[in-house]
Design goal:
This protein has 425 residues and is an alpha+beta fold. It has 14 helices and 8 strands. α3 packs across α11 and α8 packs across α9.
């Protein structure tokens, strides 16, 4: 199996110029690893093959945006988790569950030792999640040694340490992995030492994928990216469906993490309030001329004061901070035409200060490529961002989020934060 740098070179060649032989090399290199992980999650058989194809479809679609700070094998294992979860949902929805295969075959065991087989059955169910939750360097070492079958010398070179230090790292990593598996309910792990677990991984973690799966996965990826499907004899609709659902799950998982971070920032202590309320409360009050000040003795004064208190100082639309009232493409749309959409437009409820913008990047893989500078139209309410969209891609962006508060009305009131999400067909 090639080096990590070689993986990224091949993926870069595919991302930049759609080098299909380079992509085929990656598929051939990792198809056994991906299929083995899929089989641990959904059982060996056609569904595991569909999940494998789906993972490589996602790899092809996200070739430009995958972070390169970890081994590609870690990204593939993580993607298997999403693809397998979506595959199980599809199976449940279609009520086409297959009968559970023999435990040994489903787990991928290939040993004649009965004790080995029983322990592996328990380990297999929790293995991938446990590995992915290891500290970064431990995870890297375990993946390189036991999932990619790299010798100690290669592991040491990749970690930039001596071979002795690499062995120590692996020993500690296996101790941590064994402890994690034990905590996750793999009871049989208690009967073996870390060295025994390492032997199990060496023997069982990766097995040969079915013949022809490399070719089918390449064809599925080419078809999904609009390239020629080669000599494939069938259209891999199941795999592409799994891939689409898995990419949705990956995107929304990131969004939930981001939302949790925002909540941690905007909700705190006894006086913490949600983002919208916080934005409203922090908005400067409008000039007295905009809302006549009640005179002492006025019969409506008490009622007006009560309204101000109950509504955070807002007794009319004029008192409120600006909010986004419409977007193009519409927020939540899942069928946006990428080729026909060259601008994203957001319209505010009030006239805005046209010199300030805050289109906030959520992530490099969910923010569109821009083709020009943001600007306001003559109505002073609609802001336009020139973009180039990709087909079959989810887009997520904040406006006026966190420390970035460039959007404000002509009275200086900051716009309420807005999360815009849509997907191209």
């Amino acid at each position: 199996m090639g080096s990590s740098s070689d993986d990224w070179c091949l993926l870069g060649a595919y991302a930049s110029r759609r080098d299909e032989p380079a992509f085929a090399s990656l598929v051939s290199r990792y198809v056994d690893l991906v299929y083995s992980a899929a089989a641990r999650r959904v059982g060996a058989g056609h569904l595991a093959e569909d999940v494998t194809q789906a993972v490589f479809v996602i790899l092809a679609k996200k070739a430009n945006s995958i972070r390169r700070d970890a081994p590609l094998s870690a990204w593939l294992l993580s993607t298997v988790r999403y693809a397998a979860a979506n595959a199980r949902k599809i199976e449940a929805r279609r009520r086409r569950h297959e009968q559970i295969a023999a435990q040994v075959r489903a787990a991928g065991a290939c040993s004649s030792n009965p004790t080995d087989v029983l322990v592996w059955q328990e380990v297999a169910r929790e293995l991938d999640d446990a590995v992915l939750k290891l500290p970064a360097l431990d995870r890297r070492a375990v993946l390189l040694r036991y999932f990619q079958d790299r010798p100690i010398a290669d592991v040491a070179a990749d970690l930039n340490v001596s071979e002795g230090a690499a062995k120590q790292r692996l020993t500690r990593a296996m101790d941590k992995l064994r402890h994690r598996l034990d905590r996750r309910g793999a009871a049989g792990v208690a009967s073996i030492r870390s060295a025994g677990l390492a032997t199990l991984l060496t023997t069982h973690a990766v097995r040969a994928a079915p013949a022809g799966l490399t070719k089918t996965a390449c064809a599925a990826s080419a078809a999904a990216c609009g390239l020629a499907a080669g000599t494939a004899t069938t259209t891999p609709t199941t795999a592409t469906t799994i891939a689409k659902g898995a990419m949705h799950m990956m995107t929304w998982t990131k969004l939930k993490i981001a939302a949790a971070v925002v909540a941690a920032i905007t909700i705190g202590g006894a006086t913490g309030v949600i983002t919208v309320k916080n934005a409203m409360a922090a908005a400067p009050q409008p000039p007295a001329a905009a809302s006549p000040k009640p005179q002492p003795g006025d019969a409506a004064a008490a009622e007006t004061k009560l309204k101000r208190k109950d509504n955070m100082g807002i007794i009319s639309v004029a008192d409120a901070p600006p909010v986004i009232v419409s977007t193009t493409p519409p927020a939540g749309a899942a069928d946006v035409d990428a080729a026909a959409t060259t601008e994203i437009k957001v319209t505010f409820s009030k006239e805005m200060e046209t010199g300030g913008f805050s289109w906030v990047t959520y992530g490099k893989d969910t923010f569109p490529k821009t083709t020009g500078k943001a600007h306001f139209l003559d109505d002073k309410r609609t802001c336009v961002l020139p973009v180039k969209l990709e087909p079959g891609h989810p887009y997520v962006m904040w406006l006026n989020q966190g420390q970035f508060k460039g959007f404000s009305d002509t009275d200086g009131n900051k716009a309420v934060p807005y999360l815009l999400v849509f997907e191209t067909k």
